[in-house]
């Protein structure tokens, strides 16, 4: 079933189109053609911890069951698989993710599910991120500046559909590229303190509204108290104290101090903003959906690391609706009288789907 999930999310025709767009179609017949390597790279996230040979064997069985041809077959060595991954590169996986995320967002719009992600005329997105460990090789350390690569993810708060992803070498580097893609009419909710003032200015420049949790050390002078208990303040960039500040409204809610560009208490009630912040999507949802804890990417070079990251996000996007459906079925089962009398607890995993 896990391989079937991949084929449903990334049909062979779409995989082939991404391969051609990335310019990595093989020029001669190979035992590991580009299409096979796309599905293999995705399958690495389904069977984490398994060796290349075991993953390829499971993939081959699953693809045969699904009736998807993989080209001529042989028993390639681990070295051959590594070389084939290098030939594939990271661009195919990035294109697959963009296409799948765009299709999922369009489907949500058509079905009306996206209505749950709109609030008072604004489209709500969550910005979150984190670090993923990379293999300790000279090439990786030189490219990423340390043992980690940083991701910033823009996602819908309810269904967790990915909107945009940035990859960088420091916590806030990828955040800027993600926010550059925003448009007016978007409310970005985040709990990332970091250098939030700089990211704040980036978002403000493109006309997006924000609801953010600042660092405790950020100075927020109480310039004008408001009737609902919030107050107006100004936010100054970290790197340039002489730059123009941004007008913000400060909310002191029970579990956080929040700042927002939505200055009118009547148009943006504090209770509703606090609820939006509590309901934000979290970066940990990636690993919860994949059912894996903190991982160290196996790739020994930067292109392989980037390829693995895009593949991870692809599999998250593909598995997300399956996991939500499974969770709903478990919830319904737990609520039934027969289940209450005869509980059979079991935690499903990505391998279980296979």
TrEMBL record:
Domain Transposase IS4 N-terminal: 3-96
Pfam families: Nterm_IS4
Biased composition (Polar residues): 328-347
Region (Disordered): 326-354
InterPro entries according to UniProt: Transposases_IS4_N
The organism of origin for this protein: Actinokineospora spheciospongiae
Descriptive protein name: Mobile element protein
């Amino acid at each position: 079933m896990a391989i079937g999930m991949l084929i449903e999310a990334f049909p062979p025709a779409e995989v082939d189109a991404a391969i051609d767009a990335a310019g990595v179609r093989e020029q001669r017949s190979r035992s590991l053609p580009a299409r096979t390597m796309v599905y293999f790279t995705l399958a690495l996230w389904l069977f984490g911890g398994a060796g290349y040979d075991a993953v390829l064997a499971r993939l081959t069985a699953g693809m045969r069951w699904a009736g998807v041809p993989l080209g001529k077959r042989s028993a390639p060595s681990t070295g051959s698989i590594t070389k084939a991954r290098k030939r594939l590169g990271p661009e195919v996986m990035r294109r697959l993710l963009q296409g799948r995320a765009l299709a999922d967002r369009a489907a949500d719009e058509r079905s009306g599910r996206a209505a749950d992600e709109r609030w008072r005329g604004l489209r709500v997105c969550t910005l979150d991120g984190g670090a993923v460990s990379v293999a300790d090789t000279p090439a990786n350390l030189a490219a990423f500046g340390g043992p980690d690569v940083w991701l910033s993810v823009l996602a819908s708060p309810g269904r967790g559909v990915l909107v945009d992803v940035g990859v960088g070498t420091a916590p806030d580097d990828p955040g800027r590229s993600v926010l550059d893609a925003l448009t007016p009419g978007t409310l970005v909710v985040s709990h990332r303190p970091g250098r939030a003032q700089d990211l704040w200015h980036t978002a403000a420049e493109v006309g997006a509204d924000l609801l953010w949790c600042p660092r405790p050390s950020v100075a927020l002078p109480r310039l004008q108290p408001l009737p609902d208990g919030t107050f107006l303040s100004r936010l100054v960039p970290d790197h340039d104290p002489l730059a123009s500040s941004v007008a913000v409204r400060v909310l002191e809610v029970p579990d956080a101090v929040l700042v927002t560009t939505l200055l009118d208490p009547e148009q943006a009630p504090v209770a509703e903003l606090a609820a939006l912040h509590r309901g934000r999507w979290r970066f940990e949802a990636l690993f919860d959906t994949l059912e894996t804890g903190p991982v160290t990417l196996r790739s020994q070079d930067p292109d392989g690391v980037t390829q693995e990251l895009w593949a991870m996000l692809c599999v998250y996007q593909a598995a997300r609706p399956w996991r939500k459906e499974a969770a709903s079925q478990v919830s319904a089962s737990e609520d039934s009288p027969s289940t209450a009398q005869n509980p059979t607890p079991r935690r499903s995993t990505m391998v279980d789907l296979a």
